[in-house]
Amino acid sequence: MRRVVVTGMGALTPVGNDVGTFWNNIISGVCGIGRITRFDTSEYKVKIAAEVKDFDPSVYMEKSEIRKTDLFAQFAIAAAAQAVEDSGIIGSVEPDRLGVYFGSGTGGLETASNEIEKLLSSGPKKVSPFYIPMMIANIAAGHIAIRYNAQGPCIPIVTACATGTNSIGEAYRTIKHGYAEAIITGGAEAAITPIGLAGFTNCLALTTTEDITAASIPFDKRRSGFVMGEGAGALILEEYEHAIKRGAKIYAEIAGYGSTCDAYHVTAPNPEAVSSAKAIENAYKESGMTEQKGIYINAHGTSTPLNDKTETLAIKKALKENAYSALVSSTKSMTAHMLGAAGAVEAIVCILALQNQIVPPTIGLLEPDPECDLDYVPNKAREASISLALSSSLGFGGHNGCIAIKKI
Asked: Between 2.30.40.10, 3.30.190.20, 3.40.47.10, 3.30.2420.10, what CATH number should domain 4-245 receive?
């Protein structure tokens, strides 16, 4: 089978609008959560989120293009542009061998909300002719493909909170099995909108605390729900020999992927962690590194009562005796939950942890939950000798994804 490596990365997050700033803030334990600034939250139970700050789409797009794209697609284009520039991939691969696997959990939620409001208040003639191509969840992938003339497979994965991880995993398999030489992959989300906040609040997914230091606290017994985040993460995956031949810098190797479904409940994980454990186990075994120590796991770690204890159980079932020696952390304690973008951004964290031999912390973890009894690297980054990183994502609908990444 062909090997698959990472040759470019891009990130737009609540703690930094490029990979370097993002990483420095993550290992420093900087929290990106604050009071929502986009709209009036006086009638909402939830007042906080992790917004992207100081984003200027004109750095990446023409004004005419900005007017015709939802914020989630702007985030995606920005992250993809960073990754493409970082990799130098354009011009080294035939268009029909370059693909895009880029998804979103909710798509153009802001656009949908705005245009429906126009329809109800002013009638159908006021709805924008760009409504559909701004709103549909595949359009970020479409824009990226058009920009870079990527005529190979273009697949927008939509698996809720597992979107970013599944996008990377499916891109990995596509290259591994010979259907492409390189793929621009990742996820984007911009759901911090009035309707998005109301919907997640009313399904009881979000914490209602206004204390930023106690809001996104994965694996802490005080946890009470997740905090919404937003942004995008992008990676360039490339066939190893192709990357070597063109002299590309190689960050890491994608070495395994697992994808399963709980088939249990639309929002709650299966408390027995059968399928989530299988996704982690499949990625772990495919990596061929089950006999080695030095494992870092970037957990889904949403700070919800059910997720964190279920994921802990899944890790124990998947890694067995190696679970307690693994270092586990949730960077959602800093970025909050970036939904469809989370898995892509967290894969970047794993790659940089391997490169720098530093494991980022789970901040805010002050009162450990007895049911969450692994080493979650509380509050401070830790230097460690790690050779394998696993990044897991568990989405609404029961979607489970995990990728294995190793040093090269």
From this structure: 3.40.47.10
